[in-house]
User: Fold these one by one.
Assistant:
Number 1:
Amino acid sequence: MNAGIVGIGRYLPEKILRNADLEKMMDTSDEWIRTRTGIQERRIASDEVDTSDMAYEASLKALKDAGLTAEDLDLIIVATVTPDYPFPSVACMIQEKLGAKKAAAFDLSAACAGFMYGMITAQQFIEGGVYKHVLVVGVEKLSKIVNWEDRNTAVLFGDGAGAVVMGPVGEEHGILAFELGADGTGAKHLYQDEYIFMNGREVFKFAVRQMGESSINVLEKAGLSKEDVDFLIPHQANIRIMEAARQRLELPEEKMSKTVHLYGNTSAASIPISIVEELENGKIKEDDVIVMVGFGGGLTWGAIAMRWGK
Ligand code: UT7
């Protein structure tokens, strides 16, 4: 038995912040943002909507999609660097809101690689036979930690949530292989004190190298080759980084998920948000081999090779 995704949902705030809006707020241009990052617009949550509200909405949809109720959940893992409070965790807040009475709950901090860390943690509990259904949420309200006077970072990020219910699936489906990693020596390149600080060039170099390497590594571990890949879902930080990963896997453009132009970098939420987008677009189909790969502050990274389906 493998662990796989048995239900999925997302929440995106309604308010759209376009590059043209940012031009009025700081010294930047639509042209610079589009050519350097691929981003055209991003979603921004209103003051009344915090991280746990977005996580809750996405989780409700994932449970419905799985045909399960909150009481079926054994564990809730929320990957976020923008929790409502240092504690209680967002996971505990949504445990209460969902009514997931028997679920254990915790948040994990692995920045933009958080969703990969969350899924792989859930996999261990499920494949170890300890838990059956684990809710994994990637959610961020980055707009509350962005310095709106720093054009180096303010143009990049967006808010949103994606959630999956993971559970046992057949041997041929679900997670086939994974890789997780961290390099704390790079912590200084991307961190939050009051606001997000980023050494863009350093993170860029790391990301290009790591996204390619981790994608290749998970394929090898799964006993698959580049030709077996049906779809690549990279963390949506910057189209130039994503393109480098795609080229390393020698995939045609239509085999890579691209949502960065619509939602910007939503950190831990970007991969599940993209999966929902591609399911809606009909680009992910039953039995497809999918590679997901993320990187982020820490520095952290993670990749999964999976076969879609229950
Ligand atoms: O999820 C993980 C989080 N982080 C990332 O994935 C980010 C990784 N890094 C990147 O995506 C890129 O490094 C950036 C998009 C952040 C920057 O692109 P770049 O090609 O590395 O640009 P740069 O940092 O080399 O800056 C080029 C120029 C600089 O001007 P000077 O020093 O050459 O005069 C910047 O001041 O662009 C300037 N610049 C801007 N200009 C207009 C920086 N931000 C902006 C802006 N608008 N928003």
Note: The longest strand covers residues 159-169.
Number 2:
Amino acid sequence: MFPELRMRRLRSGKIRDMIKENSLTVDDLIYPMFVDENINSETPIASMPGINRFPIDKVVGDAKEAADLGISALILFGIPEHKDQHGSCAWGEHDIVQRAVREIKNELGKDMYVITDVCLCEYTDHGHCGVIDSENEEIMNDPTLPLLGKTALSHAKAGADMVAPSGMMDGMIGAIRSELDANNFKDIPIMSYAAKYSSAYYGPFRDAADSGCSFGDRSTHQMDPANSDESIREVELDVFEGADILMVKPALSYLDVIYRIKNEFKMPTAAYNVSGEYAMIKAAAQNGWLDEKKVMHESLLSMKRAGADMILTYFAKDMARMLK
Ligand code: PBG
Ligand code: ZN
């Protein structure tokens, strides 16, 4: 007890660093990228300062910039020229994400691990993550599954290293796993958006990916922010269906969920530091209200401390620069 015991003894000088329990390295970072079929030059996203949508011929340049900063993984989101009821531009061989994957892998090969987001909301004209029963405006779970399987398979065929289904449909991991396995992609891992909450923090992303809903919302399939035990059940199902990596999303308001899931399952766990979390820090920093670099580092480090092994973050390049 005090005064014999003094916690301050280890808090300054070299020893402070030596007792550090957690750290952030460039290997923890996954860089999200938007590739847009509708534009000819890179286009800033107003609510996400520093993040752009890229036309197909600029995608490789940006991926290379990330690689040069030491970032080893990225996740791709596509914005198609054509949207329809079923999201049919999500799975074509020559659609936007498939082309971007091929170009990045051709150029960077093993230097960049390419992950693809698998969902339909960027590709449907109504903006929902699955097929709609238009009579009662309901998202139909089971008819959506084969479309997700087909989409994931097309990403793998294009050369994606890993697929990341984000739609929170029941059975989606199993459906994708069997589609990949049946087509000789047994070694392509699945990162499941396993505990994805129905969150207002996705606002800026929906502008960025042009994926807002024309009616209703995603609360019929995404989780209620009030729930924590339920995330264990969600994740357990995904583990049984074959998920290799478990993601919690968003991150900052859900550090308790990251902690629980890491401890319960002892599996590789990812945190998605989402668009709204990024926008809040950027906006406060632009006003001179926060020290951007310090708050960025502290936020990302808190996700590691909670148990995340990797972090999907729009800060990836900024953070990598800071770590250099
Ligand atoms: C699409 C998807 C979303 C995000 C990642 N994949 C949006 C959503 O569910 O509406 C959010 C990412 C972010 O906010 O940064 N299913
Ligand atoms: Zn979606």
Note: Residues 25-323 form a domain with the TIM Barrel fold (CATH 3.20.20.70).
Number 3:
Amino acid sequence: MSQLASRDERPWWRDAVTYQIYIRSFADSNGDGIGDVEGIRSRLPYLKKLGIDAIWITPWYPSPQHDHGYDVADYMDIEPEYGTLADAEELIKEAHGFGIKLIVDIVPNHTSSDHAWFQAALKAAPNSVERYRYMFRDGKGVNGDLPPNNWEAVFGGPAWERVTEANGTLGQWYLHLFAVEQPDLNWENPEVVSHLEDVLKFWLDRGVDGFRIDVAHGMFKEAGLPDITKDPVAEMLGTDHKPFWDQEGVHDIYRSWRKIFDSYPGDRMAVAEAWVSPASRIARYVRPDELQNSFNFEMLTTLWKASEIKKKINHSIDALAEVGAPTSWVFNNHDVVRSVDRLDLGLTNHGDTTRLRQGDPAQFNIARGTLRARSAALMMLALPGGAYLYQGEELAVPEVRDIPEDRLTDPRWKMSGYLDRGRDGCRVPLPWSSNPEGAFGFSKDDTLTPTQAWLPQSAWWGKFSVDSQDGVEGSTLSMYREALAIRKAEQGLGDGPMEWIQAGEDVVAFERPGDFACYINFGAAIELPSNSQILLATGPVHGHTLATDTAVWIRLIS
Ligand code: NOJ
Ligand code: CA
């Protein structure tokens, strides 16, 4: 198998392993039960030892936290609960000192309703310069009582909110594709375009290595804001056309952003959060003059089935190869049910996730889910391209399904009419110690109890802690550390070619340069090739027999 440029020669973002830090839930340095910048700083040695290449920090800007930072009130400062701009600058430098790159989250589709621009728009008159920064429209019907069109918000309910004008009368409507407190910006307005460019430069000047672009397929809306024609079949298949996603205009923006990244020293980059399909549409975001990475969400919507996974890998790699971009694998993030639960039930994150989010614990087999999640991780880390990990997956923490209803904070809970518990279950503050003091070590303040963390931790949370897995052979944490160390040592892993190995319909197996191979067994026990030397396994391997749900990395010795 031919080999591509060596790791030192290729840009880091082609195959980096990036660790997502959900700042509110990572580490709390001052005992208020909320994670913060100083908390991240204190855990850099942990991240270094884990062996990741980069961290992505979820939005840390001033925000009223209606959507935990994805409602930004000021793009050029730090949320006081999290620290100061000086703390952030220090963290960027210190991470670099550890050899860790740092990317920040940028939210260009909408601001917070607390943003100075939106507050000014509320006070201003219809058709004013202030309102032109957002998507204000007159309502339909005799008195403008009806929303301008039939669009629905992602979190549920109508995507339009009516405002009260300065004179006290009911007035125009504004668009919010997400929460009411997240008004959509008007990307046809050059002032919006240039402000976001200034924001990028602000953070690039402070040394960040890149950006994760929130709702990267949003921003532009189809001209005239047409009603959506309901097509139940397309809706079920997830192929329905939405006039606010994946519009051509976004690509002009990314072409100009790319010029900004390239004008800075070092390989500055951006990764798109673009929920578009098929893979050929994703490829358009990573054309050579646009962004460098786009999350590959295929594995979040996959069944635990070899044939489906193989198909998804092929489609993803082929589509991106056409534009010369690497694939960026994702098995977990702060928006989806943790892979331990998801893969146990073999369910996807598509459609109704109620069963996964609030199901009776008795229906879950955590041991099986853990084994599958570990196997999925070994597969991901052996595939060509980069990988994005989400904090806690290296501990195999499961979804927390017993958060009391009165402690749920995700806007989805309210906007779904209290039907969908939302995403809090994958955002519970990390357990660093098995001892409940300091919210299982999440907080520096020992007196903080697990239920005093901003999202309450369950009584059983400590058994997944870092200290109960650190240095323990066979723990998930040890497995991730070993996998990342092997990945670093093996020049052939990361970016580069792969070849399928035919090992049966219930097996995903592939070879990478350096006589390296990865096998994941989804069915009955199989025999590995007799010349396999086992480098790493997700569960016990007796002789050369690979049990169900288990994965191995092997060297094929001649
Ligand atoms: C995607 C983010 O990942 C999610 O957490 C957020 O709610 C929406 N974008 C809206 O910003
Ligand atoms: Ca704190």
Note: The longest strand covers residues 101-106.
